[in-house]
């Protein structure tokens, strides 16, 4: 049974690039435009991992990570932040919220897939 990964980014082209890389590696992908859209799609189904941007309209990635950690079904779902942000302060804020990894854009698909494979839950 393939693992399901949610990709949360306000850029449709970035969601597409990440989706192609993940699908190519055998994962199912659920896409969301921002944190609010992502929360509305978390309806109890198994999500093995989330790849999330930091800077998005409506709800930014760090707020989204804090929100997902409050949901019993998703409290232990690992989150990879995929972002243009590279400052230590932002990384620490992301880690404090519960993000497990930080990948800076532009990224190499194999780097992202390596992080996904390390973190994806059984």
Automatic annotation (TrEMBL):
SMART domains: REC. The keyword Phosphoprotein applies. Gene3D superfamilies: 3.40.50.2300. One of its GO terms (biological process) is phosphorelay signal transduction system. Keywords: Phosphoprotein. Residues 4-120 form the Response regulatory domain. Pfam families: Response_reg. The modification 4-aspartylphosphate is found at residue 53. InterPro entries: Bact_response_regulator, CheY-like_superfamily, Sig_transdc_resp-reg_receiver. CDD domains: REC_CheY4-like (cd17562). This is Two-component system, chemotaxis family, response regulator CheY. It comes from Pseudoduganella namucuonensis.
């Amino acid at each position: 049974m393939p693992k399901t990964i949610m990709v949360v980014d306000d850029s449709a082209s970035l969601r597409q690039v990440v989706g192609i890389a993940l699908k190519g590696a055998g994962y199912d992908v659920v896409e969301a435009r921002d944190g609010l859209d992502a929360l509305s799609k978390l309806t109890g189904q198994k999500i093995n991992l989330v790849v999330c941007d930091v800077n998005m309209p409506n709800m930014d990635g760090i707020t989204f990570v804090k929100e997902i950690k409050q949901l019993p079904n998703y409290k232990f779902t690992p989150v990879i932040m995929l972002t243009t942000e590279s400052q230590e302060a932002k990384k620490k804020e992301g880690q404090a919220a519960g993000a497990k990894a930080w990948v800076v854009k532009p990224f190499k698909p194999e780097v992202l897939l390596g992080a996904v494979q390390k973190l994806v839950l059984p």
